[in-house]
Amino acid sequence: MAKLILSMESTVLKEIPLTKERTTIGRKPHNEIQIDNLAISGEHAVVITILNDSFLEDMGSTNGTFVNGQSIKKHFLQNGDTIELGKYRLKYVSDVPQQTTNADFEKTMILRPGAATQPPVAATQPPVAAPTVAPSVAAPSAETPQGHTSTVSGMAAQAATPVQPPVATPTAALPLGVIQILSGGNAGKELELTKTLTTLGKPGVQVAVIARRPHGYFITHVEGASFPVVNGKTLDGQAHQLGDHDVIELAGVKMEFFLKT
Questions:
Q1: CA gap 24, 175 in Å, rounded
Q2: For residue 91, what pLDDT is reported?
Q3: Does residue 56 contact residue 72 with C-beta atoms inside 8 Å?
Q4: Would you say the C-alpha torsion 59, 62, 64, 65 has a positive or negative sign?
Q5: CB–CB of 166/122 below 8 Å?
Q6: Does the pLDDT value for residue 106 go beyond 70?
Q7: Nearest to 27 by CA among 46, 44, 4
């Protein structure tokens, strides 16, 4: 089982086993890992743990989240990584071999209800740079790990590296899941869930992650005061298994999940 070891300077404060799928870090008392320090935002970061893999995401913190000295927005955690939050350190320790690689990590779709319609992007083609990028969405920087994230804004792709074919995993026998946009300027567009983890939403508003597991696809809330809605029912903080033709409402956009046969 993976865990985080919280320390300040050379003093170990506590160990936190990553037993939940969603472990929040921040100054406010409701966080699973509370750090009562003004340098830490109320909701600073979150660790999503899926099977043996964990990834860290900054939740729009004021002072930023660093891993091994590098500023990150999203980061796939590997054994020995050190998360730096002001004067505090969280060391990630895992004794289980990790199957996910950065190349197979995730694709992020930024959902914008009023985005202009763009030509569909085939999942197997290299990403095409979008003509414009909304000011609120930062293009990948040199600090972002190569192959870590490809960002889709209005269903047009923008990435530092081409999309690579998924690594063969036990999920290969699972029917391919697809998200189809039902509302907004991108209605009718489709995103194939070929990655182990796929994040959907609008940073700073509402973000969720869909995990591709051997026995199905699961959606988990990551960021935002409002939780995703599936078939008219608001989800909680736990993972929810998606069924064929489920309708998801996220960041003001309706979409349908279905399985390709």
A1: 32
A2: 96
A3: yes
A4: negative
A5: no
A6: no
A7: 44
pTM listed for this prediction:
0.51
Query: Residues, the chain, total?
Result: 261
pLDDT digits (tens, 9 = 90+) for 194-213: 888 888 887 667 888 898 88
- Give me 97's structure tokens: 């071999």
| Strand-by-strand arrangement of the 11-17 sheet | 11-17, 3-8, 88-93, 82-85, 65-67, 70-72
Amino acid at 27: R
Cα–Cα distance measured from residue 13 to residue 89, given in angstroms and rounded to the nearest whole number: 10
**CB 176, CB 131: distance < 8 Å:** no
User: Does 134 have pLDDT greater than 60?
Assistant: no
CB atoms within 10 A of CB 134: 13
146-198 pLDDT per residue, tens: 433 333 333 333 334 444 544 444 445 789 999 999 988 788 999 999 888 88
CA-based nearest residue to 234, from 243, 225, 20: 225
For residue 140, give both structure tokens. Answer: 């990948």
